[in-house]
User: Fold this.
Amino acid sequence: MPDLTLRVNGSERKVSVAPQTPLLWVLRDTLQLAGTKFGCGAGLCGACTVQVDGAAVRSCSTSVSQVAGKNITTIEGLSANGLHALQQAWIAEDVPQCGYCQAGQIMAAAALLSKNPQPSDEQITQAMSGNICRCGTYDRIRKAIHRAAGAGGGR
Amino acid sequence: MSPFSRRDFLALGVAAGAGLVIGFYLPHGSSGNGETFAPNAYLRIAPDGKITIIVARSEMGQGVRTSLPMILAEELEADWKRIAIEQAGASTLYGDQTTGGSASVRTTWDPMRKAGAAAREMLIGAAALDWGVGRDTCKAENSTVVHTPSNRRLNYGQLALKASTLAIPADPPLKKDAADYKVVGKPVPRLDTPSKVDGTAVYGIDFHLAGLKYALLARCPVIGGKVASFDDKEAKQVAGVRYIGKISDSAVAVVADSVWSAMEGRRVLNVQWDEGPNKDLNSAAIFDSLKKSVSGKAAVLYSTGDMSKASGRRIEAAYQLPFMAHAPMEPDNCVADFRDSRCEIWAPTQVPQDCRDSVAGAVGLDPEQVKVAVTLMGGGFGRRLEHDYAVEAAVVSKAANTPVKVIWTREDDMRCSPYRPASYHQLSAALDASGWPVAFAHRIVAPSINGQKGTAQPDGVDVDLKDEAALVYSFPNAVVDYVMTESAVALGWMRSVYALQAGFASECFMDELAAAAGKDPLDYRLRLLSKDHEIKFFDATWRTSRMRGALQMAAERAGWGKPPAAGHYRGLACFGCFGSYMAEVVEISMENDQPRVHRVVGAIDCGQVINPRILEQQIKGGITYALANALRAQITIEKGRVVQGNFDDYAPIRMNEAPEIEAYFVESKEAPTGAGEPPVPPLAPALCNAIYAATKKRIRALPILS
Assistant:
């Protein structure tokens, strides 16, 4: 198999996988970055959300060849030097219950704040409704996004 | 085989707390390994002061990794900031570790308090000996023992080794007054939050071992069908595929170096299925059969008065609910490493001991040769009460001779799991001249989960109904009975189990009675709760006063009695299950003939609250889960196959449909009762009652939007 070079969380990683392999499984299995989760495999739930060149992307529905050479950020790489404002807000608001969806929620929220640092409730709803939470933590997710935005949380 | 009889395990847990000395306490003189103080299986204190509390229930988002340690830390008088927690795997030291039935706090309230109190008494004893003073001049606080007259202090780390040498008290005194609680009842932040926001939390599906392979199973898409033959020529060609084999009557495993290779291998695996006896099974026939069974032999769950003597204006209605899927966010999975005389399992499971025993049986080992570690779960809701994926992993590991992780896709989970049973309900009441009910009858028709799993159901009653079908109103004459049917569809316990169905039918029907009587739904229920009565339902005693309290709290906080905003309508419901009392008010408006839920107010009486923040999470989470159930959740069967497959046709609630939810609880010093499931049953009937208020249309079948 040909080698592909991926730029993940600021580091160059060479992987030897079939080019149509979903990015999700390359992250989890090949690179041992298990923070990004498998929830549906069909782009419906958002648990697999990462950022590619700053945009929120469903890694289960993105082949690794599509993102070679682009900047891929996962939950593990969200903050270079400690917790991102969103992660701090998530802790302050005690957002997670089972927590399985939360990496995807945070990555989607981070993409939102990087483009819209002071989102309205309506804009939060629109940006975040792609991410499913079966535990029902939506109100705390919303609060945490506002909290991070209030703390200047685009980063 | 049922992993537990829920009533039995609840009784065992409480009894175990009272006398669980053997295996729980280490023998006198050996409460530690010379390096730590470990007076019982729940606790270790190291000389550096670190306190490790072992949690013997599974964390699935309900917060047990925080709430259970809080219970022990309270009696221990520990500095909460120095607590570390450890997850117990399948063990013999903690009694039944099944996590379910909203019973984790209920069954560990006694043992963990006693564990903490015993250690506290020993630490005080150690300090008193050290100082040569009477122990009654010493007190414990914040991981320290203080000699009050002289203010001398020794911390628990300093006392640990000496405490290890002391006798372990069998019946240590517990705090008598909740007013003295420093940790229990406080909104302590959850311990597992940081790892869940930085990507380091390890769920079953994340667990990794050196040499791990990955397996997907091709399972018969027709319920109860079998593998006739399979052709793996193409699948073997897929890069990374290492092993393909039939591992049970109805499944073929594809084992590969990576999940994706296994998925690709399975995609081109050609299995010929013997579709079996259920190939024509369909939902219409299932509901038809349930309806016809209403005249079958019924087991009485509850009766009071004499139904034959009651007469009045007769109201009747029938209700039905579909199969529902748990659909936790983390699809099922398990890691297994089978060697000749041992097998090790890492499972996101609510039943570690059942996994141990079932795996042992499946791979020809003794239970002592099977080790089960409990991982975090990405949601449970009762799906993880099944040992199916653990047995699969062990069998595949043995067959393929490699440590392996079995992964289910979302479609596998949606189509090959057990489901909440479909049910049919016949209700009738007789109203007097003023419209008050003089008789109330509820017949529940449903297959038995425990019966299907092979647990004997004495007297035709599924034992789970004992916790789930109570009728907490003062009716002069009433009967609740149950017709047990059969089902070819696999059945499982799904958050609140039969309470969801019983609550839906009975609380929608209560609203029908109120409407027939021309009375306000709140006033109608309060009238039936106005006298302080005790209602015995199997082994439990329910109190109308507590239901009244929860109902009044919810109604008051929701502003019932004050008109809602223009175009808004309200409905309410209340139900008792798993020992707790829950009431909900739902406020909606109708948009294009569909209900839009704006606000839900929930009030619970669950006795002593351990952590109000976690309780609030459970109430809001349970209501959100229930809303998905009410609006769209259904598993339908056509030609013997489950129709739904993913989140597009089994749609959960997303943020754009999430209502504002307010959660309240009654301050109570009663023993703690359930919180995980009680918020579920009242939501659907309260919502349908609101829809009736808005449209005068009565909904008698779920889901509301199909």
